[in-house]
């Protein structure tokens, strides 16, 4: 484990409950996060990176074909990790899935969340974990720290504005409009008003926190891909490293 992050090791939740409608027919028999790039599933790429970063405890939520995810990954020992699962009878949307997984995460404050369907093979998780020291020492609690990326061709309008590490829905043109990567640090209090087992979207919670200036972020310019269509998956497999 890297010495620099020893005090900042937190659990990670990998979001893997989506149906992957846009990836059909590939996802008719295979959960989207188990689709492979360069011979490894999307989830395996994440798990190997988490192990390298020193993270030990991982929770994976699932719904569609969730048993196949458990069968493929087991308890995580093949990745030198401890994996537990947060099954959902029907997908609870992002915030609902996070709320249901909180007891498994067993954290007093922050935890890492990564979308299971993004491909970001060189993302510096260790560097992100060092941000925890700053987050924990802010006078007003930061409820989310989002990794933002340049807007991809399929999402040119972006999601939120970033200015001086502050993320907001609208900074009147002062910030840079970027896309949320699906990678972020969250404080458990962001989800405290949600009921367990109820479907809930993440964006409204983030927007409420943004209005209270409780969402920070940073821009990441390394390789990042939202593996949202069969064509994108094919292109990634055909690309040379």
UniProtKB/TrEMBL annotation:
One of its GO terms (molecular function) is nucleotidyltransferase activity. The keyword Nucleotidyltransferase applies. Residues 13-239 form the Nucleotidyl transferase domain. CDD domains: NTP_transferase_like_1. It holds the Pfam family NTP_transferase. Keywords: Nucleotidyltransferase, Transferase. The keyword Transferase applies. This is MurNAc alpha-1-phosphate uridylyltransferase. It comes from Polynucleobacter brandtiae.
């Amino acid at each position: 484990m890297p010495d620099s992050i020893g005090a900042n090791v937190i659990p990670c939740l990998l979001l893997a409950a989506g149906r992957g409608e846009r990836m059909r027919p590939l996802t008719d028999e295979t959960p989207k996060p188990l689709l492979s790039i360069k011979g490894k599933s999307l989830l395996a790429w994440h798990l190997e990176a988490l192990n390298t970063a020193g993270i030990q405890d991982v929770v994976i939520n699932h719904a569609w074909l969730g048993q196949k995810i458990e069968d493929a990954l087991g308890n995580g020992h093949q990745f030198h990790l401890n994996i537990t699962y947060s099954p959902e009878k029907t997908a609870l949307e992002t915030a609902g899935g996070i709320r249901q997984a909180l007891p498994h995460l067993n954290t007093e404050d922050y935890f890492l969340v990564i979308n299971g369907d993004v491909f970001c093979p060189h993302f510096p998780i260790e560097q992100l974990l060092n941000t925890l020291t700053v987050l924990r020492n802010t006078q007003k609690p930061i409820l989310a720290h989002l990794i933002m990326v340049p807007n991809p061709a399929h999402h040119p309008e972006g999601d939120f504005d970033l200015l001086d590490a502050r993320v907001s829905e609208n900074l009147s043109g002062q910030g840079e409009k970027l896309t949320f990567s699906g990678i972020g640090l969250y404080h458990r209090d962001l989800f405290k008003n949600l009921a367990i087992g109820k479907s809930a979207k993440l964006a409204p919670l983030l927007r409420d926190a943004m209005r209270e200036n409780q969402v920070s972020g940073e821009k990441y310019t390394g390789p990042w891909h939202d593996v949202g269509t069969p064509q994108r998956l094919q292109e990634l497999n055909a690309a040379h490293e």
